[in-house]
Amino acid sequence: MGSAREALLDAAYEAIVAGDWTGARMADLAARAGVSRQTLYNEFGNRDQLVAALVLREAERFRALTGQAAREAPGDVGDATAAAVTAALTAALDNPLIKATLTDDTSGLLPYLTTRSAAIMDVFREDSIAIFTERWPEPAEHPEVRAEVGWISETAFRLVISHLIVATEPVETTSRHIAEVVRRLMRDLTTT
């Protein structure tokens, strides 16, 4: 069933990118994927669960990209953050699903980046915490402080999403600014 699931996610992706999401019926999506409508319902239950799964699949792709960028970046936690943010925002500029989410008001997908973004945030949280503590080991030495690193990770995530939705400066500038926020929060965390 794994291939049917991917085919259905691909069909949803294609419908969204083509601007057909709003009018697409479950039967249309199933036909586009080459499976029965019942298979679609068995895999996802409903349209909301299908799009939620698609969003999580895309988030995993971004997590792999940003995690690799952060781990390959030389330097401190800020440098790793800047590399990850640059990778995320640059990839988002060319990502058809992100473009459709931000430009098609009728698709109903924008909440997955805003009010319904908790699941996406969860995808990035553990990776971010690991990278932050690799690059700034002091929290690992203070267990009561280490818990706050998750909050710093969430703050960085929210800043990236905000800049993705309303870009006010070049990607490199945004990356440097978010990196500096992370550095300051980590520094403040370890000096209190």
TrEMBL record:
DNA-binding residue intervals: 25-44
A Pfam family: TetR_C_35
Gene3D superfamilies, per database record: Tetracycline Repressor, domain 2
The HTH tetR-type domain, residue ranges: 2-62
Superkingdom of origin: Bacteria
Keywords for this protein: DNA-binding
InterPro entries referenced in this protein's UniProt entry, alphabetically: AlkX_C, Homeodomain-like_sf, HTH-type_TetR-like_transc_reg, HTH_TetR
SUPFAM superfamilies: Homeodomain-like
Protein name: TetR family transcriptional regulator
Organism: Catenulispora subtropica
Lineage summary: Bacteria, Bacillati, Actinomycetota, Actinomycetes, Catenulisporales
